[in-house]
Amino acid sequence: MNRMIAARLLRASLVACGAAAVLVVVVDWSGRVVGHGPLEILVPFVAAGLAAVGLGAAQPRIDRLVERLTHHREVTPYSSLAAAAARIRAGALEQALPGLAQVLADGTGAVHAVVWLAVGDRLVGAAEHPPQPPDTGAATAENLGVLLARPDVDHVVPVLEGTVLRAALSITKPGAAITPGDQELVRDVANGAALLLRGVALNAELAERVRRADDLARELRASRQRLARAREVERRRLVMELGNATSVRLAALRDDVRAAGGDLGRVPGDPAEFDSASAQQALARARIALDELLDRFRLIARGVYPAVLRDQGPTAALDEVAADLPRPVRLTGGLGGRLDYEIESGVYYVVAAALGALASGPDAGELLVHLDHADAHVTVRIEDPAAAKGPEDLRAELADESERLVALGGDLTITSTAPGAVELRVRLPDRLEPVVESSVGAELRVP
């Protein structure tokens, strides 16, 4: 026997005993005062009226006594709604929803009752009775159909605002039938608490919007930091490229031009012998150095703004890079179409730098580069069967490019697959977007 049945039996017994006591006292007193006569017929009605008035006045005391003895409080849906409304006025929404769940369980005899709120495009369990441990996560359901199909749900009543689902009430009665009275009670609670549940659902949706706005703000700050790091990496790369191109080559060109100028500047009769052959050799060396310098500047310009990359994509641009390398390169796969320039340039720069680092060693076979685009990510695999540099050296040499990838949300891994062989894997998302749930703004609708 559960507490609800025991409380009802005890309450009925106390009421019956009280009514019987009043009837006995009134009948005994009337027999002495009124005696036998015409008024005697009114005595039972007077006794019943006094019993009703007395029991009505004593009802709160009887309820408190029953609650103290059975540890069960008799509630009705409407008393619970009144208490919930009082809590709403006090601003205690977290107390109002558990009260609704409790009245559902107590009123229907359900072993489990849940108040669900529509948050975004899903239903979230906001309150349940009996309550679950605090460390248990809130239950969720994708939609009303999924909730109805749950094995632990026997009856569901939705709370609608037009065709928009705002909340739902569910009960579970394993081994017992859902009676028409249960259905009516849950429906009355849903109708009576509709305004409350709609308000709470809208508050939950507002909290979800605020949470998403915070996530977007954090992602924006992180994106700005990544872009700042990417700009710094590009600045260091350009400084290094320009330094390598100008320092040695320009110094050698200056010396050759100065030597040629010195030879050509001698006049007849000068004690120093006029050497035209030496001047021609110096000018030839200067011309070669100037050609190399121009080629180097073209490479730098291609690295700063590769026209082929912009016009034809990273595959064609990498083909152009591979043609200038001392080692053969086999390029396979592709991206299956054009992507944002930031993504394509990120792939191009890291692969070009990796090929340059691997091709700088002795010619020991073909380099394999495979590009792929799947699962919203771009991946590149670079294999060197006989690398002159180990993974640690390559990580140090490609540190700037690795930072660039991290700034774009990607990563670079370098592993040793066999003695003397290395494999580089590049992984990069195909879209530069904050990874934040986009369910806010969506609404569950009931056809």
From TrEMBL:
Q: Which GO terms describe its molecular function?
A: kinase activity
Please tell me whether the keyword Phosphoprotein is annotated for this protein: no
What keywords does the record list, in alphabetical order?
Coiled coil, Kinase, Membrane, Transferase, Transmembrane, Transmembrane helix
This protein's superkingdom? Bacteria
InterPro entries reported in the protein's UniProt record: HATPase_C_sf (IPR036890)
Q: Which residues form a coiled coil?
A: 203-233
**Protein name listed in UniProt:** Signal transduction histidine kinase
Recorded source organism is Pseudonocardia cypriaca
